[in-house]
Amino acid sequence: MRRSIATVSLSGTLEEKLRAAAAAGFDGVEIFENDLVAAPVPPREVRAMAAELGLGIDLYQPFRDFEGVDDAQLERNLRRARAKFELMLDLGTDTMLVCSNASPVALGDDARAAEQLHRLAEAAAPYGVRVAYEALAWGRHVDTYEHSWRIAAQADHPSLGVCLDSFHILSKGGDPAGIREIPGEKIFFLQLADAPYLAMDLLQWSRHYRCFPGQGGFDLTEFTRHVLGAGYTGPLSLEVFNDVFRASDPHRTAADALRSLSVLEDALGREGAAERASEDLGDSHARPRVTLTRLPDPPEGAGYAFVEVAAQEEDAESVRAVLAALGFAHTGDHRSKPVQLWNRGNARVLLSSTDPRLGHTWGGAAAITALGVEVADPDRAAQRAGLLLAPTLPRRRDPAESRLNAVAAPDGTAVFFCPGGHDGREWLNDFAAETARHRHEGTDTPLTSIDHVGLFQPFDHFDEASLFYRSVLGLTPDASLEVAAPDGLVRSRALASDDGGLRIALNVSVLGRGTQADAAGGAQHIAFACDDIFAVAEAMRADGLAPLAIPDNYYDDLAARTDLAPAVRERMRENGILYDRADTGEFFHFYTPMLDDRLFFEVVQRTGGYTGYGAANAAVRMAAHRAERDR
Ligand SMILES: O=C(O)c1ccc(O)c(O)c1
Ligand SMILES: [Mg+2]
Question: 438 labelled as ligand-binding?
Answer without folding.
Answer: no
